[in-house]
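Co-fold these.
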Amino acid sequence: MALPSLLVLYGSQTGTAQDTAQRIGRQAQRKHIQNRVAPLDGYNVAHLISESLVIFVCSTTGQGDPPDNMKNFWRFLFRKSLPAGSLCQLDCAVLGLGDSSYPKFNFVAKKLHKRLQQLGASLLSPVGLADDQHDLGADAVIDPWLASFWDRASALYPSMNTVTPLPEDQPLPPRYTFHFLEGVGETSGDTERNSREQRVPSESHPFPARMTSNQRVSHPSHFQEVRLIEFDISDSNIEFTAGDVVSMRPCNNPEDVEQFCQQLRLDPDSQFILKANDSTAAPAGLPEPCSLRHLVEGYLGVAAVPRRSFFETLQCFSTNELEKEKLAEFSSAEGQDELHAYCSRPRRTALEVLCDFPHTTAELKVDYLLDLFPPIQPRSFSIASSPLAHPGKLQILVAVVGYKTQIQKPRRGLCSAWLSSLDPSQGEVRVPLWVKKGTLRFPADQDTPVIMVGPGTGVAPFRSALQERIAQGKAANVLFFGCRSQFKDFYFSAEWRDRVEEGQLKLFTAFSRDQEDKIYVQHRVKEQSKLLWDLIANRNAYFYIAGAAKDMPASVCDALKATFQLEGGLSLEESDQMLVAMEKAGRFQSETWS
Amino acid sequence: MDLGIKAGDKVLLVWNQPSSPLALKELAESVGAFIGTDGKISVENMEMLLLSSHRPSSYDWVLSCLLIDSSSVHSSETLAEMARVLKPGGKLIMEEPVTGTNGYSVRTAEKLASVLKLSGLTSVAEMGKAEMSPDALSSLRSSTGYQGNSLLRARMSAAKPDFEVGSSSQLKLSFGKKTPKPAEKPALDPNAAKMWTLSANDMDDEAVDLVDSDTLLDEEDLKKPEASSLRATCGDGAAKKKKACKDCSCGLAEELEQDTKGVQKASLPKSACGSCYLGDAFRCASCPHMGKPAFKPGEKIVLDNNTLTDA
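Predicted complex below.
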């Protein structure tokens, strides 16, 4: 009996599930099993009925939702019209990636597993539920699950036991080959050619928006740098409403680019064309020809925290005994604890790891660059302005991320640090971006009141909503805003003052560090219980929470339920049910980020 | 009383009022004789059990209400808690008043067995029935108001299943066919194939009826993993394992070796380690240069004032 052919389909939001799927593909390759790895929405689902062996790798994101690149597949799979025996030819398994600190832990994987069963598929393994909350991360579940899967697969396909797998320290062929061009000419267009296309900008075709202003809105003496950044999007075909989200891919900073090229002894100005070694398509967004500088600056995730697969690939190049041993340790299941302490916990970047392994780095073959480093992940921001107040413009509110870990050099957020370094007054700055629909929906009705709780940068989508609503004549708006100090980070204070004076906004503020007791938005929510009860129970108000996850959303929910009990005379269970009912009806919405 | 308790076992002894302190002490001592010095016995009042929050999966045995004076009825929460603190494979031995027909306060032995199963325990068996003591009878009557006559005390044994609830990587269940072989696959109904393909070619149709995916999830799916299953197996997640570098010359390797032999160490010598100049990947846990990049060749190793503590 022949060896099977494996299809690995993934739904990935931040690249983790994609990385895992690719790792499974490499494991299959080492076992000499033909394999394809593809995102679910990039796969023609009509063929699923004739597949024989499939692994689904799916993250759960947002509020228990499937990642963007499997949304279409998801909606297809749950059609009532699909016959129950459709997938009777299929042997498959589901591996889920999630985080049990979220209430809907791995819901996507759990639901997928059950739905596949409903449709007649044969599930070889129990659903794998990887958990970021485990001390050793997702690998603690993934490794044993994969080992078990291969066991079960070889029971189905005994011929698998007759082939000798390629050893772990032998390199697999790279996915691409670099064909360098002789004679360094002009560095070709570092940005994608600016064609006047009529389509709506997307991830594969972002719009190169000109940055018109980049102002710090938190006081210079405040520890946190928060900036209001504006882009010109006229003639872009970009349309958005309140609650929508803008995405962009940041660039690596020039020092890192220089250091990377030095470590690998690469000439940043050399130009190349990529040839794919198998049926994988060439990556979008790279010009042809491309310079190494452009690749390292705008595409390769060298400032990202590397995953285990990075070390697995790296060890294959190492001839230095000390380094090879350490890399093998970091690649092994037993070494994951050490890897976590060395890499993930202190947030060590791939570039910093390379500097710790100089001999191996010098032996790296450039053909493997795209196998070693994932593309830079796009970052998303809630849009903070409305076209009705700022036509042709798009504004975002960005808090620059910076913190210390065990590593001496402080950690900086790649995108926020990059944005803060761009100065439009020094010359033209263009940022390729695109817009996606957000999850927040605001009521169309003129009189429906809207209550928004948005501390810190959480206020961004609410500024967009307020500008939009006020332009539409909707004046029933309540905003709870919290920050550290009235004089240090109360951004938009003048704008809110004007709205309040004009009777278009009721504003309640909580400045946590301006007095001895910490006062937060949830305290203000509790203080306004009479107003809130009247708006919610008698005037059909909608309630929104936006901002950093962790404690704030739960505390605000508790304060809201306390209001139901106090003013509405509800019991604890009844107030829980009321909130659940509001959520189902779309009258309670939250958009929080970690 | 020969239950099979072994030396080294960890036992939780649960009792409730009213009870003779002397009888409880004697029971504890006789259990202690079985488990010896390596074992551990904890005594807990049933009312306090739920509040004490014992560590999960930590006891080989839970012995509940085995004293002749006992008259307590175990609540579902109490039984679930006992199941939680038992190790996988651990056993519960408990006694409870039972009656001929189910009342609202006292159960039949069959109902009790069923309740034990619902708490997550397996191998539920009735070990025997006995007369209740007059004191136990009267205290039961006054606490529950039970007036019937057919009261006996039943001793039940039950075990915690061998797998941990909630840790998905340990389950060895296989869904679907037991020994799946491709040859056994049923043929695909051509109508089903047609329907699927038609739907797939019509992906953009917004106006289709969808199954509510929430309905697919049951109670088990809504459970979160047990916190203990998320910890790394080597000791506490908080305590970082100390490791010495390969050619350790600072004494840490010796110290670690001596630690495993149970010898106390006073302080850690801070002489230069052979691997300091390499990156963090190779430095030992106590290296004063941890956090810095690897040194360039020819760079002097200088300890700044912050890293020099006690000389």
